Amino acid sequence: MALDPIFLTQIYELALNTAKEAGALIKAKRNNGNLTNQYKGAHELVTDADIAADQLIINRIRAVFPQHRFLTEETYNDTSESHDLSTPIWIIDPIDGTVNYAHGHQMVAVSIAFACENEVQIGLVYNPFMDETFSAIRGQGAHLNGCKIKASQETNLRKALVATGFPYDKSGVAPIIQRVAKILMHCQDLRRLGSAALDICWVACGRLDVYFESLSPWDFAAARLVAHEAGAQCGHFGHKPTDIPACIYPNDLLIASPALFEKTRELLREASGY
Ligand code: IPD
Ligand code: CA
Ligand code: CA
To answer: How many CA atoms lie within 13 A of 107 on its CB side?
Structure first.
């Protein structure tokens, strides 16, 4: 059943306004120069801006839709919640690229996805430092600052620029290094830009040709819809359990120009021993 277009427009505008407001907050907090850094677990950095932005986004959405559910990195982060996308749920990363943020880099984004009827319906990724808004409504294409975007049509992996990332917990890094080594030998070059949401949106607008990594749902739920709507192929190079929707299954993600997807998938599977 198609969703009511008036409802979807209302959701889109709320996501856009909220992402912009959260973006302004995190930009101002950094410019003021008094960020407080803490660690979640042994290695994962979280600043007071991550927590303030998470709260702001929840409050703004809850004021309009008190019955909707949330999956957010800093507050409601039980990922088993995201397995059920049948009724409205907002999937939020208040700052994607926290390490970049804390070091004064520009690859930082607010990521807001809205899902229901078992699919992500709206994706919004806003980079307040570059003033770039990537957006998509399911079935209506993808946009960067209001202009339609298309994924790269590159067909030759040797000419492809590929991005990936690394988890904070380095205990499982060995297989990741094997994948990086394999892909590096077959592509033009590799990037580690530090924001998965922006990496994926950069595949969507053709600045990158391929992206792969294992993540959490809030890192990529919005960006994946942007990439899908821009014509990139979105999937996984490893096994995906049947009971978790593909649009939020976070392991072994692969997002690529359509002509490069299969070749990259084969190489990643080989490197992973799958
Ligand atoms: C991280 C970034 C990074 C990716 C990590 C994520 P955070 O998100 O997206 O690019 O490599 O796996 O955890 O912690 O900055 O929200
Ligand atoms: Ca993230
Ligand atoms: Ca985050």
So the answer is: 15
